[in-house]
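Hi team, as promised in this morning's meeting, here are the two structures we talked about. I've kept the exact order from the run log so nobody has to guess. The first one is mostly here for context; it's the second one we should focus on when we meet again. Sequence first, then the predicted structure tokens.
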Amino acid sequence: MKKIKSYNECRDGLLLVDKPEGCTSHDVVNALRRGFQLKKVGHGGTLDPAATGLLVILLGKGTRLSSQVMGGDKTYQGSFKLGRVTTTQDREGEVVAENPWHQIAREQVETQMSELHGDIFQLPPMVSAIKINGTPLYKLARQGQEVERKRRLVHIYRFTLSVWEPPFVEFEVLCTKGTYVRTLAHDVGHSLGCGASLETLRRTKSGEFCVADALTLDVVRTMTLDQLNERILPFERFALRG
């Protein structure tokens, strides 16, 4: 990336980035902060390292829009694997059970997915960023601890099966902020009696923003400041909506 002399040369606003698999949301923030020598950079909603897709980066005054951006509904595409139960509810965790899944029919899966439509209470997984007495749950999980968590109300507008290739099930979900998609997969598997865990996850929309309009991180790394400024959505466009 081209180095710049002053933070003030960067436009205030939002930048849409397509986060690759294997890096954290904070890694993307750091890439912008260090590459362009920016002082104020944040993001509008964390994606797990294994997940890909839309990450809304907040620049300068754009960081004031954090709550507004995080509060938007989210759309994800992904897949889960029937029969596999893990400690983290996804493929990154330790496998604790491998159960028969051949008896499960597509219609059964779709029925259980439809049962999760509407308002539901979710129990946050131990590998979440929710803090208990100031400590994120995932840090406690790494220490082998499991603590009591409060169920959280979320709303599932749509949770549909898109591709049936058992034991893998591809899906799309439209939900409110704070929804744990890995927990949706886990709950479907639990209801079916065979268990399930998340295999892949990609965020395609966040509020009004779409991943189709995002830049890959590799492209961002090659940009000049002028090129970056051309892709920043101006702060003023969204600040007036408050």
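And here is the second protein, the one for discussion:
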Amino acid sequence: MDHSFLSGSDFVGITFWVVSIAMWASTIFFFYEGMRVSAKWRTSMVVAGLITFIAAVHYMYMREFWVTMGESPVVYRYIDWVLTVPLQMVEFYLILIAAGAAVSGGSFWRLLVGTLVMVIGGYLGESGMISILLGFIIGMIGWAVIIWEIFRGEASQAASQNASVSSAFNAMRLIVLIGWAIYPLGYVLGLMMGSVDANTLNWIYNLADFVNKILFGLIIWNLAIKDTA
């Protein structure tokens, strides 16, 4: 049997393919639309495009790894996340700066460190370097730091003082609260139910990336377009 081509019965492989194409399409869209917005929003649009571009490149490798090996592309997945997830947190800081909100560098570093703790904890658990449960706990601590900063910390307070960015900021942080909850759900269902279920783990992760990376960028694009108009 030839495992080098995608099978119509391989649901997880199909989700890898769909997300890969969606990331490439989103990248083109964000870079093109970035030329239409005012100068203060272009960096945010470029970062949104970089997030989907990095994901698109990694999904090309992840889909081939899955189709050929039939195993979780753990290393590729976490290399993608260690680059794209911090960039998503950078976006919070960038839109506050673009809107003229007063926010210190401390908020940026808390968001950045929180994302790195979350991703590294998950990788250590999923790769077997530490226990799966300990990796989950470390990852959840990093997520909690992010949630606190964007709902109760300095970033949240700065956003509430600026009407032009408040609605977009609220939508973005709901993605981090609700959309990002899909990741630990996949971790639990795929790794912590007594045995490793690679199919469940990967289609849930793919769904989470599709929703969180693309929708996150679309919210920033919508804010930039409205502010430019």
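Starting points for discussion:
The chain has a mean pLDDT of 89.
The chain is about 80% helix and 0% strand.
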